[in-house]
Specification:
Blueprint: E1 4-8, H1 16-29, E2 34-38, H2 44-48, H3 60-65, H4 70-76, E3 78-79, E4 86-89, H5 105-111, E5 119-123, H6 130-137, E6 141-146, H7 150-153, H8 156-169, E7 175-181, H9 189-202, H10 216-223, H11 236-257
The structure holds adenosine-5'-triphosphate and magnesium ion.
Length: 258
């Protein structure tokens, strides 16, 4: 639990998966071991990491069915096509069935293998339902991904409330560790206004630097199922952003675990 991070926002398409995978790419480039837990029934991160959710042997959903052993969890985890350092606990459409049910099961499963990794990242679905609340129950850290647009900021208060509710009910160790701004255009007074607005809501220190720029190569990386670090100089600024965000995350996780 201490090294587990839930990457969330109830809003769809803001870059939860892009940020989760960008951080995993940076972690692997730094030689660190990462487990990506795909808690989204759409299972995009499972697919981008090289596995077809429709063909995979077992998924996170199977581990939520009953009380798994550590061996059950290790047997469900697969190595990604990116690197031996990046493993994935696959998602599947069947996760949809868990939109009702106990919020503590995901934590039990992840805790059995978390010590095998430096950091565990949970890619959440775009909702504040049971799957996201289960991910928050399993995590020491909540990382919100936000797009600095008018629509992107809508609902951010609801995300903060959900974190508070989980902290209050199932996980007193949970903290909102940061907000990552994604898809920030090079020049936009609108984006700057929205960042100011967000600063008023969550506070200056909660917003992590740097933000992730809007770049077509990030879209391409997802489509080609490659880590962003594969693209070299063509992706130099997003790579630099994810490397710095990774160092911040790594330091945050280590500090909290001491
Ligand atoms: N910084 C960026 N620059 C350019 N494209 C981006 C960026 N971030 C995300 N995208 C693109 O936006 C789309 C949505 O991103 P992503 O799948 O990461 O969002 P999500 O929040 O995980 O979505 P969902 O809610 O469906 O899980 C993808 O096609 C992705 O490639
Ligand atoms: Mg996603």
């Amino acid at each position: 639990m201490m090294r587990t991070v839930a990457v969330l926002n109830q809003k769809g398409g803001v870059g939860k998966t892009t940020v989760t995978l960008g951080l995993a790419s940076a972690a692997a480039a730094a030689g660190r071991r990462i487990l990506v837990v795909d808690a989204d029934p759409q299972s995009a991160s499972t697919w981008v990491l090289g596995h077809d959710p429709a063909e995979i042997g077992g998924s996170l959903a199977d581990l939520l069915d009953d009380e798994p052993t550590a061996d059950d969890v290790r047997d469900t985890v697969v190595t990604s096509a990116w690197s031996d350092l990046v493993h994935i606990l696959p998602g599947s459409p069947r996760l949809q069935e868990y939109e009702r049910g106990s919020k503590k099961r995901m934590r039990r499963a992840i805790d059995l293998v978390a010590a095998d990794y430096d950091v565990v990242l949970i890619d959440c679905p775009p909702s504040l339902g049971t799957l996201t609340r289960s991910a928050l129950t399993a995590s020491r850290h909540a990382l919100i991904v936000v797009e600095p647009s008018a629509l992107g900021l809508r609902g951010i208060g609801g995300v903060a409330d959900a974190i508070d509710e989980v902290w209050d009910s199932t996980n007193p160790d949970l903290v909102l560790s940061g907000v990552v701004l994604n898809r920030v255009p090079a020049i936009s007074s609108e984006a700057e206004r929205r960042i100011d607005e967000l600063t008023r809501i969550v506070g200056r220190s909660a917003i992590w630097k740097p933000s992730v720029p809007q770049r077509v190569v990030l879209n391409q990386a997802i489509g080609e199922r490659r880590p962003v670090h594969h693209y070299g100089y063509r992706a130099s600024d997003p790579i630099d952003a994810f490397d710095r965000l990774w160092r911040k995350l790594d330091a945050t996780v280590r500090r909290a675990a001491d």
